Amino acid sequence: MTVPVLDLVRQYESIRDEMDAAVLGVLRSGKYVLGPYVKEFEESVAAYCKCKHAIGVASGTDALLLSLRALGIGPGDLVIVPSFTFFATAGVVHNVGATPVFCDIDPRTYNLDPEHLRQVLADSEIARLARAVIPVHLYGQMADMDEIRTIAAEHNLAIIEDAAQVIGAKYKDDLAGTVGTTGCFSFYPTKNLGAYGDGGMIVTNDDELADRLRMLRVHGARPKYFHRMIGVNSRLDALQAAILQVKLRHLDAWSTARAGVADYYDEALSALEGIMTPCRGKDRTHIFHQYTLRVLDGERDRLQEYLAVKGIGSMVYYPLPLHLQECFAHLGYHQGQLPASEKASAEVLSLPIFPELQIDEINAVIEAVTLFFR
Q1: CB within 10 Å: which end of the chain, N or C, has fewer?
Q2: Are 90 and 111 in contact (CB under 8 A)?
């Protein structure tokens, strides 16, 4: 049996009639960039997240980039980011002219470690120049936002939530994206709420910031051809908005299905020696964008090769922490400086998880992992 790590065709087939009607409606409308479809989807996301504003942009990367731009962060500023994350989290800091400062992670949840954040900010020069922190809610659950919020307030830091992987997740009573100054979502096709191309969204409760973001995404213009600031072209197109509007109606059911798969994996795999199943942090819900094992004793790569031979897909998110990436060598970080991030990069392995995964496929994954360790 072949078990893919993700199968987006199955998802499309499950909602084909709704999806085809939505796409055809856009094609017939002649309104393809921003416009009523984007406005409707923005309003739906704002209502779903229980926040005042949602601003559609071209990608999750642009959501982060424009958040930094809207806050006036640029050359001479420092922004604290976790090292164990997708490249965009730090890449956008560089691309606005600021400098990323890398922070280690909680080895249980893989999210930014508040204790290490305090240690980073104990450096008086970093504390003086730091303008923001970008906690990444990795794999489907939120970071420890109470502690991060307290530290940010002490140091007058903006919080830009990288919520690319967690739409619908909660920390206590707060939905992902709504705790910080801004929250940034990605609608890349593989996300729990994925478009059929790139797309992103910024959510915020700050009226002035929302107004600035709406101008920044259209070259800083208002009205058209009259430019109040220098912005970029980062617009969510109507076709993706219509697709996402359909999918949003199914998101909670899909999240429930993912949690069911995760529960099944947990029950079967948690007693195995040689792996650690995902930790579900206190006071938060996990929407399982990924189901990520920690494979101990240097066996991760060998397990992945074994699964591939068995026809079972798996992925490593992420094989090299950002502080050790070649493009950031000029920042002077070295091996051993952020041990939790480095250890996670050597040990994590994500198994197949998506709402349409069948029970015989789940059992095939479990059987293969179990046989490897036994």
Answers
A1: C
A2: no
- Residue 67: pLDDT above 90? yes
Query: Smallest Cα–Cα separation from 174: which of 187, 165, 163, 158?
Result: 163
3 lies in a domain? Answer: no
Whether pTM exceeds 0.90: yes
State which of 228, 248, 268 marks the end of a domain: 248
CA distance 143 to 332: 27
Report which residue type is found at 171.
Answer: Y
Cis peptide before 265 (omega within 30 of 0): no
Three-class SS of residue 171? strand
What CATH number is associated with residue 15? Answer: 3.40.640.10
Q: Find how far residue 18's CA is from the centre of its chain.
A: 26
Q: For residue 202, how many C-alpha atoms fall within 13 Å in the half-sphere facing its CB?
A: 32
Of the residues 198, 223, 248, the one at which a domain ends: 248
Give mean pLDDT, residues 224-247.
96
**Cα–Cα distance measured from residue 314 to residue 292, given in angstroms and rounded to the nearest whole number:** 10
Phi, then psi, of 333 in degrees rounded to 5: -75, 160
Residue 291 pairs in a beta bridge with 351
| Cβ(93)–Cβ(100) below 8 Å | yes
Range of the domain at 260: 251-373
Question: Is residue 1 assigned to a domain?
Answer: no
Q: Are residues 90 and 219 in the same domain?
A: yes
Residue 28 vs residues 17, 21, 23, 237, 241: alpha-carbon distances, Å: 16, 10, 9, 15, 15
pLDDT at 261: 98
Cα dihedral across residues 269, 271, 275, 277: positive or negative: positive
Nearest to 351 by CA among 280, 282, 303: 303
170-211: pLDDT as tens digits? 999 999 999 999 999 999 999 999 999 999 999 999 999 999
Q: Phi/psi zone of residue 95: left (φ > 0), alpha (ψ -120 to 50 degrees), beta?
A: alpha
Tokens read off for 62: 């642009």
Over 90: is that where the pLDDT of 374 sits? no
